[in-house]
Structures are given as structure tokens and as C-alpha cells.
Amino acid sequence: MSTDPRPTRPLGLAVLRYVLPSAIVLAGAVVMAFGSEVDLEGGGAIVSAGLATFFINWLFRIGVAGDREREREDAARDYFDRHGRWPR
């Protein structure tokens, strides 16, 4: 039995969060390596899309963490209503 409080995450989630944005940024860097002005602008746009993908995932995780904190707070308030003291 594991004492690690963190839940295990599926491989697909790690791929979506880290590998996909990294692959998009790497593809943009490869395009930029061709060197013409159009390649630099296009590669910059692709790199921006990869970074945006990463930050959208990050913002979603922040929002979900806030939901979990709200649920814990609601549970603590319910406990207080039933027992007259705040849970430890």
C-alpha cells in the first residue's frame, strides 16, 4: 500500500500536458531553422501556439485546484455544522 497522497495520472494526460506543447515548440524551432524571413515568422507563430497550448493546460489545472479547495472548504463547513467545531 502506497503512502503517497498524490493520485497516479494516466500517460495520455502527461502527453497532452507536456509532450504535445513541446513537440509544437520543437516543430516551430525546426521551421525557424530554415532561415528565411517567412520561415522565421511562421516558426515564431508555431512556437507561440505551442506555448499557448502549455499555458492553457496550466490555467485549467489552476482552475481545477481551486474547485478542489472549494469542495474541501464546503466539507469542513458541513462538519462544523454537524459537530460544532472545525475539523483538524
Describe this structure in words.
- The chain is mainly α and 88 residues long.
- The protein has one domain (17-83).
- The chain has helices at 11-32, 37-83.
- α1 (11-32) packs antiparallel against α2 (37-83).
Largest sheet: none
Number of domains: 1
The level of helicity is over 70%
Radius of gyration: 21 Å
Question: What is the typical, i.e. mean, pLDDT?
Answer: 87
Number of strands: 0
* Estimated share of beta-strand residues: under 5%
Question: Could you give the distance between the termini?
Answer: 24 Å
- pLDDT < 50 stretches: none
Number of helices: 2
List key phrases describing it.
88 residues, mainly alpha, 78% helix
